[in-house]
């Protein structure tokens, strides 16, 4: 047996640091939680190079007294626990006493702190777990911690870090979570010298949600406020119509601490049953409040996993809280007729004609509003009156009005088009003028050919020169040997029988009964076309109104890392900042209404499959785009549409499976049918 060695203090600290400090985001999380436990009402976070080279956390909390500063950086040193009974009632975010010691073991740390009762502050420097200096300094009340050169003494850890952009997005995700869990604290986030987030700190959760995720997401939420068996549920859930293709925007907090729980996710989604589309997931920001002795948060060093004393009570309270919010606040869209009447009256006073159009706002897609009808014709007198009204009397004499050219005189549309389109060197030919004989004869011939019935095309022939006996001025006809070209094999006729369950097309073809999944078939057809367009670099459609997509910070980082992949698939996606991207171009087959869901679904897949090769990622983007653009099961299609789709499937051997691998076509031969009915033995 090998000899047992006792590890040095420095080595033990490096090992312990690995459980707490995984990346810059871990440092920011631990230090921000310390600031919150110190009673801060304002926290500023600043990072550079993704937090690898520089992290600064500034708060206005209670500060640390001078004699306690060196102790704070010792392992398992904390002011939040005194004895083992305190573990049963943990009210603070931090309690292990490992954060500062772990951070100091793998970086260079500078601390500035001052309490309210002290005259001067304290400056403390520690590098790699070794104390460098402790002296007085002038600073405001509160604490400032600066962390430089993270993992400078553990190069093995450094090489596993991702790009600076990815690490910065991970830090942004942590800042967002803490901001959502503590709306009473004003949080400011500075990234690479630019402020990207500031929350008001007014104690209103909806204000923080607005600051973090934007207006569109905030307006899609319903308030939740419910209590059952001593368990209180507060926060917001989304309207069923605003559900998303992934669970990335689900945030659960327990006593203002972010945590992950599959049972809570399932309970909330059950409350949306029969009210949400299949394949969509609700988003939420919910805070569960219960007594600390009913839950154990001392499960994992990251403190994102918890154990409930009675999980069934928690999930039941969550279910009824969400269900109550949906039944109470999820009301149909209301149209305020008084506002419409006011708009109408003002428009009528101004002489503006109104037209009824669909409201394109996110929350009122089904509402109709009045908007001014665009004016296509403006009379010359109206223009003249308007110009006179705009010229002030005192300056009217000084304004020289040039006479209008003849071009602006009123003329018929046909004359205007002819005048613009005709070349200057040639006279314009009008209908009443006599056309040349050659043109008239050509048009008469074309007219006669169009009126004649179409005859069957004669077979192509070949005449062999050696077998033709040419006799000039002979009365007998020459002997000609006709060799017919082999005709191309024409597909057999297809007979459409109908449709089953508005999903499967039934048709008869070549002594077989064929059942076609119209969604899978159409999806494959669109996928093949989009793949060909991507390969040939055909132009995508430019959106008149670019679409902004709000993503979680993790998905946002993935999309930014794969902008070239989106471009190869026909999308022009740009960084819009603060967890949002903007889509300016998309493939021709994709509808504008499906762009947001498509990008979110693609971002979720790319986040979960970061190691896939680029060709696989492009195929996945095309898969998702084709699926969104294809005919959906349950949609009503005309007979002509179903027949065209069936012909494309049966006349093309390439369309046999959808991009996800499901079969497109199932065939039953006439022999099998007759055998089943006992017509043949």
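^ structure tokens above, recovered residues below v
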């Amino acid at each position: 047996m090998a000899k047992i060695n006792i590890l040095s203090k420095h080595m033990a600290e490096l090992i312990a640091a690995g459980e707490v400090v995984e990346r810059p985001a871990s440092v920011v999380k631990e230090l921000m939680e310390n600031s919150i436990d110190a009673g801060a009402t304002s926290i500023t976070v600043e990072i550079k190079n993704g937090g690898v080279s520089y992290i600064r956390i500034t708060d206005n909390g209670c500060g640390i007294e001078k004699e306690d500063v060196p102790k704070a950086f010792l392992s398992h040193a904390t002011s939040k626990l005194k004895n083992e009974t305190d573990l049963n009632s943990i009210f603070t975010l931090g309690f292990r006493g490992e954060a500062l010691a772990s951070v100091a073991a793998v970086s260079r740390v500078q601390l500035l702190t001052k309490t309210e009762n002290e005259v001067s502050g304290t400056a403390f420097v520690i590098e790699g777990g070794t104390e460098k200096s402790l002296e007085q300094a002038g600073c405001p009340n509160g604490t400032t911690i600066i962390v430089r050169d993270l993992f400078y003494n553990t190069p093995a850890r450094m090489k596993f870090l991702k790009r600076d952009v990815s690490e910065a997005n991970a830090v942004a995700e942590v800042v967002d979570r803490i901001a959502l869990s503590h709306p009473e604290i004003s949080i400011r986030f500075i990234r690479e010298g630019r402020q990207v987030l500031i929350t008001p700190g007014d104690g209103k959760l909806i204000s923080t949600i607005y600051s973090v995720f934007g207006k569109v997401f905030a307006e899609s939420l319903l308030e939740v406020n419910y209590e059952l068996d001593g368990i209180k549920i507060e926060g917001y859930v989304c309207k069923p119509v605003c559900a998303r293709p992934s669970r990335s925007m689900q945030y659960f907090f327990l006593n203002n601490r972010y945590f992950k729980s599959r049972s809570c996710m399932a309970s909330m989604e059950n409350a949306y049953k029969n009210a949400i589309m299949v394949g969509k997931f609700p988003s939420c920001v919910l805070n569960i409040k219960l007594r600390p002795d009913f839950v154990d948060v001392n499960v994992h060093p990251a403190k994102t996993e918890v154990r409930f004393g009675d999980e069934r009570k928690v999930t039941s309270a969550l279910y009824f809280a969400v269900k109550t919010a949906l039944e109470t606040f999820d009301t149909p869209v209301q149209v305020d007729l008084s506002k419409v009447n006011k708009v109408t009256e003002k428009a009528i006073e101004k002489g503006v004609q109104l037209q009824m159009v669909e409201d394109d706002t996110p929350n009122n897609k089904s509402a109709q509003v009045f908007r001014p009808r665009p004016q296509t014709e403006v009379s010359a007198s109206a223009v003249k009156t308007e110009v006179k009204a705009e010229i002030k009397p005192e300056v009217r004499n000084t304004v020289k009005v040039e006479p209008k050219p003849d071009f602006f005189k009123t003329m018929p549309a046909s004359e205007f088009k002819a005048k613009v389109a005709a070349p200057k060197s040639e006279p314009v030919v009008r209908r009443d003028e006599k056309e040349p004989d050659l043109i008239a004869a050509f048009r008469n011939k074309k007219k006669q050919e169009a009126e004649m019935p179409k005859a069957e095309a004669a077979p192509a022939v070949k005449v062999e020169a050696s077998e033709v006996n040419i006799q000039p001025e002979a009365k007998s006809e020459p002997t000609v040997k006709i060799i017919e070209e082999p005709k191309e094999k024409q597909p057999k006729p297809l007979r459409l029988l109908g449709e089953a369950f508005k999903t499967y097309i039934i048709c008869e073809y070549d002594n077989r009964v064929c059942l076609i999944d119209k969604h899978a078939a159409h999806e494959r057809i669109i996928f093949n076309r989009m793949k060909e367009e991507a390969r040939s670099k055909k132009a995508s459609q430019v959106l008149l109104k670019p679409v902004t997509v709000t993503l979680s910070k993790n998905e946002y980082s993935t999309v930014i890392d794969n902008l070239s992949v989106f471009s190869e698939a026909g999308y022009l996606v740009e960084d819009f900042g603060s967890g949002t991207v903007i889509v300016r171009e998309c493939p021709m087959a994709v509808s504008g209404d499906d762009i947001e869901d498509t990008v979110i679904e693609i971002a979720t897949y790319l986040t979960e499959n970061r190691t896939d090769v680029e060709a696989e990622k492009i195929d996945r983007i095309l898969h998702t785009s084709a699926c969104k653009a294809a005919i959906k099961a349950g949609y009503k299609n005309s007979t002509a549409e179903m027949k065209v789709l069936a012909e494309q499937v049966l006349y093309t051997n390439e369309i046999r499976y959808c991009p996800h691998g499901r079969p497109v076509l199932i065939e039953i031969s006439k022999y099998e049918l007759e055998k089943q009915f006992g017509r043949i033995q």
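Residues 311-329 form the longest helix (19 residues).
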